[in-house]
Write a structure and sequence with these properties.
- This protein is of the alpha+beta class.
- It has one domain.
- It is about 20% helix and about 20% strand.
- β5 and β6 form a beta hairpin.
């Protein structure tokens, strides 16, 4: 093998080892304007009835308000934590509040669930309603 081939293989190996860890370092959501959205631009919500870092939105509630799922190997960091749901799946939480989508939001930027029944809230720059 030539020196060039060895260098190229070493570079490819380094990239293969580093890139997967970089993918997990990204936060699960971000602020777009004044609203927290996932990486596709879909609005995220909190539920006032969730307390103590636990999600109580299950069954039909979770069908209407799908949780922002966390992968099994996801790592909590800073304001981001992971809660275990009653069905055993993992869900992202921000500042202790589990995060959800709303089934009627169809396009990035939709916020049709904000203030629904006065218990569902869009997350804004000031953080989730506590």
């Amino acid at each position: 093998m030539t020196q060039y081939t060895l260098s190229l293989k070493a570079l490819m190996l380094a990239a293969a080892l580093v890139l997967p860890s970089m993918a997990f370092a990204a936060e699960p959501a971000m602020m777009k304007g004044d609203t927290m959205v996932d990486h596709k631009g879909m609005t995220l919500y909190t539920f006032d009835k969730d307390t103590g870092g636990k999600s109580v939105c299950t069954g039909q509630c979770a069908e209407n308000w799908p949780p922002l799922k966390a992968q099994a190997d996801a790592k909590a960091e800073g304001d981001w934590t992971i809660v275990k749901r009653d069905d055993g799946t993992m869900q992202w939480a921000y500042k202790g509040k589990p995060l959800y989508y709303f089934m009627k939001d169809k396009a990035p930027g939709d916020k049709t669930g904000d203030k629904m029944k006065d218990v569902w809230h869009v997350i804004t720059n000031s953080g989730p309603k506590m």
